[in-house]
Fold this sequence. Notes:
Elements: H1 4-19, H2 30-42, H3 44-73, H4 76-120, H5 123-134, H6 136-178
Amino acid sequence: MMSVRGWMPALLCVAAALAGPVRAADEPSAARKELVQKVIQLHQGAIENVGRGLAETPVAAMMQRAGPVLQERFPADKREAVAKQIQADAKKYVDETAPMLRDRALKLAPSTMGPIFEQQFSDDDLRTLIAWLESPVSRKYSALGPELQKGLIDKVVAETRGTVEPRLQALERSVARRLGLEPKNSKPDGAASAPARK
């Protein structure tokens, strides 16, 4: 009978044989690195959009939250002026912040996206991907992306507004109540106004 010491090296040899050939420290070749750089270059527009999106997304959420507050707390004759001031502040923030985030995204893309492309794609995969990204069909498809997305978003919003808005408003009231931000003149859902006492 073989001892543990005797079968352990044999087991390791079998495991190594089953694992297949080992690449030299998993270091990608210069050719693969060049292909990956080309893929990243072809994704430059999408990478820039990541930076812009990071600047615009919180502003859009903030603007949505500001709308009901404007309606509740400002008289009709002052709402438009305050809304324009808020929009100007938001635009200034995006104009100042988006370029910084875009530049950072472009700088970090090779070190974050590059290793993933190097590990997940073969050289042939990368060449195929590059051919697709450079093709007129890909460019046409990419150009349609915003239009396709907007069309779908508009339709979903239009068809669900009546269901979603009341739920969202109920959630906003609940959150405001829990935070102690409930407006003085608001009443719980379904509560009728009490007659004024004299």
